[in-house]
Amino acid sequence: MITFFYNKINKTSLKVNQRGFMVIEILIAISIITISVLSAMAVSQKSIQVSRQALHTTEAAFLLEEGAENARIARDNLWSNFVSINTIEQIGIYTRTVVASSVNRDSTTSDISVSGIDDPDTKLVTVTVAWPEGGTTIVKNLKFYLMNIFNE
Predict the structure, then answer these.
(1) Which residues contact 31 (CB under 8 A, 6 or more apart)?
(2) N or C: which end of the chain has fewer CB within 10 A?
(3) pTM of the model
(4) Is residue 28 in a domain?
(5) Which domain holds residue 33?
(6) From the CA atom positions of the chain, what is the Rg in Å?
(7) Does 80 fall in a domain?
(8) Which residues pair with 88 in a beta bridge?
(9) Residue-level pLDDT at 150
(10) Structural domains in the chain (count)
(11) Beta strands in 27-93 (DSSP E)
């Protein structure tokens, strides 16, 4: 009779222990699934952010080139109008600035230098594109020289 009760108690305690292990297994499985889903969401969010930055950088490069082409066209149309070019444009989220500044030449070598004689037929054109990105402002510049090739 004692063995009968002993066997009954062992079977009952075994079932309780199995249920406890089952709950722990379910909690571990839910934790693993939750961590996997959150990781996938973080990766996709970072991917979207990086692709948006790449898009903005590409658009800014096109705006820089367009600004350079506009400066060349202004030079080709009439040098006297180009000499004082200083424009600021707002294009979507981008701000584009085109500035033509004076250039000095060395009096002995005629090379472009910081000091020297002002060259009225050469200008340094600076095209700048700026846009907000993630709480900061990104700025890209393009600098080049244009000369009065038509001697107007």
Answers:
(1) none
(2) N
(3) 0.72
(4) yes
(5) 2-147
(6) 35
(7) yes
(8) 97
(9) 83
(10) 1
(11) 86-91
pLDDT cut 90: percent of the chain above it: 62
152 inside domain: no
Q: For residue 43, is pLDDT > 60?
A: yes
Tokens of residue 133, six digits: 């990105």
User: Contact 141/126 with Cβ under 8 angstroms?
Assistant: yes
Q: How many residues does the chain have?
A: 152
Cβ atoms 86, 99 nearer than 8 A: yes
Tokens of 78: 């009439």
Give the span between the Cα atoms of 93 and 138, in whole angstroms. Answer: 11
For residue 109, what pLDDT is reported? 87
Helix (H, G, I), strand (E, B) or coil at 134: coil
User: How far separated are the first and last CA of the chain, in Å rounded?
Assistant: 122
Q: Would 97 be classed as within a structural domain? A: yes
Nearest to 95 by CA among 45, 60, 51: 60
- Pick the range with the lowest mean pLDDT from 4-13, 45-54, 77-86: 4-13
